[in-house]
Each structure stands twice: as C-alpha cells, then as structure tokens.
Amino acid sequence: MVENQDVELKQHISFGSVVATIGSILIALGISWLIALNWAGIPSVLKILVLVLATAGAYAAGVLFRTYDYEKIGGSLLVLGSLLYTLSIFLIAQIFNLATSLQSNAFLLLLAWVGILFVSYIFDSPPSLIIALAEFLIWISLQYLSFVFVGILRGEFSIGILTIIYLVVGVGFYGLTQIHKSRDHKFAKIYRYWTTLYILLITYILSFQGLLPMLWTNGLELTSNVLIFLVIISIVAIILAVIGISMSVGKNKLNGKEVIGFVGLVFFYILLIALVGLISGEGIFGGSISSGLWAIWLFDNILFILVILSVIGYGIRYKSVKIVNLAIIFFGLDIITRYIGFVFDFGGQIGFAVISIIGGVFLIVGGWGIEKWRKRLVEKTEEKTKQNYSIY
Amino acid sequence: MKQKSKNKEYLKLVISLGVLFLLLGGFLLYVSTPLLGTKKAVLAAQSVDPFSLVRGQHIIIRYNITSIPFIKDAKVGDSVYVSLADDANGISRYKSASLSEPSRDSLFIRGQIKYIDGDSMIVEYGIEQYFFERGARFKTKGMEVKVKLSDDGGARIVELLRDGEPIKITYKNKTLTS
C-alpha cells in the first residue's frame, strides 16, 4: 500500500515537473522571441551576454534536474544547452559579420562539435553525443568542400575523395565502438549506429549511375590542403581502429570473424572506389552507356543490397532495433532511387506512364512487404533482447 | 541522489561550462582582435544581392579593392597585403599590393586570393558581409564601410557610412503579429 502511494506520488511529481518544464520552456521561448524582435537595438555586448546566460542556464537547469533524479528532463535540458551553444557561435559570427564562406561555416561547426563532444563525455549524455556526431558529419563534409571550392567552380571536383573521407571516418567510428565496448561504456551503441550510417551512406553514394563517372574527374590534382586533411584523419582513424580492436579482442568482446569481415569490407570499398577511376569522365546522358559503367554500377548495387543484409544481420546480432531500422530505411531509399532512375533512363511519355504504373504497383506491394519484413525483424531482435543473452 | 553524487554533478557543470566558455572566449577574442586595433580605414563599396540560408539576412559587399592588379607568382589561396592610402575625401584607396607583409607602421589590409583572371585578381578580406535583422531599411547606394585593422592587417567592419556619416538602419515597426 505504502509502496503504491510512493509510486503514485512519484508519478505526480514527475508529471508536475514535466508540466513545469514545459512552462519554463514556454517562458524562455517567449522571452527569447521578445529579445529576437528587438535584437537590432541591443548592444553587441548585451547580445553576447544573453547568449552566454541562456547556454549556462540550460546546462545548470539540466544538472539540477539530474541531481533530483529527473534524468530524462535533465538530459533534454542538456541537449537544449548544446543547441544554444551552437546557436551562440553562429550568432556571435553574425554579430561580428564573419564571412559566410564554406570555410567560415566549417570553422564555426568545428568549434561547436568539439565543445559538445567534450560535454557529452563529462555528463555521459548520449543525446549530446548524437548532436556532436551530427555536427561532425556536416563539418567534415563542409571542410572538404571548402578545400575544393575553387575546383567545384572549375568543374574539377571529386566525389571520390569525399567517399574515402566517409570511409575513413567509418573506420575511426568502428574503432571508437570497440574502445567503448571493451570498457562497457554506453556510448558504444551510438558509435556502432554511426559506423553503420557512414558505411550505408558510402554505399548509397556509390549506387548512383550518374555519380560513378564523376567520382574521379580527369586531370584531378589533389591540393596540399586536401592531402594533409586526408592523411591526418586517416592516421587518427587507423590508430583508433587498431586500439579499439585490440582492446575488444583482449577482453574477448570481439571475435576474429567480425574483424576480418570489417577489414575485408573496407578493403573492398577502397578497391571499388579505385576501380571507378577506369570509367572516369564517361557520359551517361544521351543514351550510350559503356559496358564498363554498367558492370560497375550493377556490381555496386548488388554490393549495396549485400551490405544492407549484412547490416540487418549485424543489428540482430547486437540486438539493435535502431540499426535494423536504419538498414530498412536505406533499402527503401535504394528502391525509390532506382525506380526514379529507371523512369529517367526509359524516358518518353508512354514509357514514363507505363513504368510509373508498374513501378507504383511494385512500390506499394514492396512497401507492404518491407513493413512486414521490418516488423518481423524488429520482433526477432526484441525477442533476443528479452532473452537477455550476452552477445558482443 | 546522494550529496556526494550531487557535488560531483555540480563539479561536472563547472568543468563543462568552463571549457565551453573557454572555447567561446577564444573565439570572441579571435573575431574581435581587429576591433581592438587602433588603425582605421574607410573603404568605398557597393552591395550585391544578399543571401544565406544558414547565416541569416545580410548584404554582400564588394569593395573597390576586391579586384586588384595581378602580382607575379601569386596563387589562389595565397595571402595578399594591400597597402592603402587615404584620398582627399578620407577614403582609403588601393596603393600597392604584395605577398609579403609590409611594415606594421603603414596602413594595409590582409586578404586571400580567391580567383585570378589574366592581369587582375579577386581578393577577399573577410569583411564582405554585413548582417542585420529582418525588416531593415537602408540605402546602399554610395556606401562606404568603416573598418578597424589589426597590426597584421586583419579587418572587421565597424559601421556602414554614406558621405562620412553612419547609415541609419530603420526597422519596420513591430506588431503583435510580427
């Protein structure tokens, strides 16, 4: 009886605090809106002070909630703090009229994700880590694009380097997954998810017939900036991977098969990205597509499906519903992209209409099938989670 | 939560805020260094279409010193130092340019070569944008830009001028539905 009352009281307190939090967020939103409306008239020093106080306030409130055992609300406020910190950097850049170039934005994002990454470790906050990793993904893409910006204007831009960068980052994240797994750290799951995301992202980029000939543009010269950037992130990624794999293997939390599988996949990707150089600069518009391009494109798409299936297997092995769902999303994305591609390839009004109808029927049936498949896989994964057996 | 754990959480807060504000402070110092300098220049300018999806409403400014004569051995990405000399109206005009830093006593601005086209090159100085809020109204014709310069030629915008006077930016009146 007393226990029930305690639970009820706890629920009331919890509900009350949720309402109070929503109220305080609304008040904060209202005040910030009023500030925004009068932003022009506020002196720069005061603007910066407002930003700093808002960021500090969100973090302090988050910590207070955590100390009173409201982990979820506290976690949400820490996320708010991370977002306000990012916002502060961009608003300070605006106050000082900093450049809007890709390099300038990349620099601002670098400052943001480094700070948030640090805080996510201090507070052991997975949502903050996710924000840091999302900003990292945008940063790494922007940083590369800023190095080759002049090349983009001249049409000498290489997507090949970008895919290699994503691959290298994927390797680094795999290393971080293993480091955290060996230490039973809760961030292991997040790094595993992001490793998977990068691997699927590379495969998706490589599945486009139109992008393959552009992967390596003819006469491409690597600038010293790009080369140094690539070398630095490669060294960091390899070191992380070697340390992580040895730590996990040393604690019997990683088997040889998975390591061989991962190293094999990376080697395969490097080979594939290099092979695409053979069809560099080939035109795909105007009807004639070389047999080489067709072969590589078909091979890429078969690989994509195989990677998706492997990721599903990986998700089930690690009891991760999120990884299984991610693989299914990319599978759906692949079907839709290929469908649109076929519509373009077999153009003409009647052709378009026929393919649209046939494709539409396939998509509806396929969508129903995918959903059924997804539910079955998720159930299977959850079943394994309930059995609570330990798999590393 | 036990008192000991609470204290640990507060310590984490202090460390986190300390690091974040150290990063923000360093950034602030970096962006405001030219404003702490004593050198000033007024540059003739004209505004081009504003647009930035990420960074908000602003105007893009093109200066008379945006396009300067080509310097031998200059490459895209190189830093370039443009020496300035004031004309009779107090506007700082192009005097000469060099790939090496001039004497720190002289008035010069540092830029980066963005494009080379025959015997001229396009240079950016990091002051090509000026931000303002939604609903702003001001004339950009005949605009000049007052900048502050650090010892190494780094520049930051102080204000927009016309005929030597600060341009007054008026904002649309705020209503309940603004």
Secondary-structure element pattern of chain B, one letter each: HEEEEEEEEEEEEE
Helix content of chain A: over 70%
Shape of chain A: globular
Number of helices of chain B: 1
Number of strands of chain B: 13
Rg of chain A: 25 Å
Counting H and I runs of at least 4 residues, what is the number of helices of chain A?
A: 13
What's the pLDDT, averaged over the residues of chain B? 85
Helix content of chain B: 10-25%
Order of helix and strand elements from N to C terminus of chain A: HHHHHHHHHHHHH
Low-confidence stretches of chain A: none
**Proportion of residues in β-strands of chain A:** under 5%
Judged by helices, strands and strand pairing, the structural class of chain B is: alpha+beta
Structure described in brief:
The complex is a heterodimer of chains A (about 400) and B (about 180). Chain A has about 400 residues and is mainly alpha-helical. Chain A has helices at about 1-35, 45-65, 70-95, 100-120, 125-145, 150-155, 160-180, 185-205, 225-250, 255-275, 290-315, 320-345, 350-385.
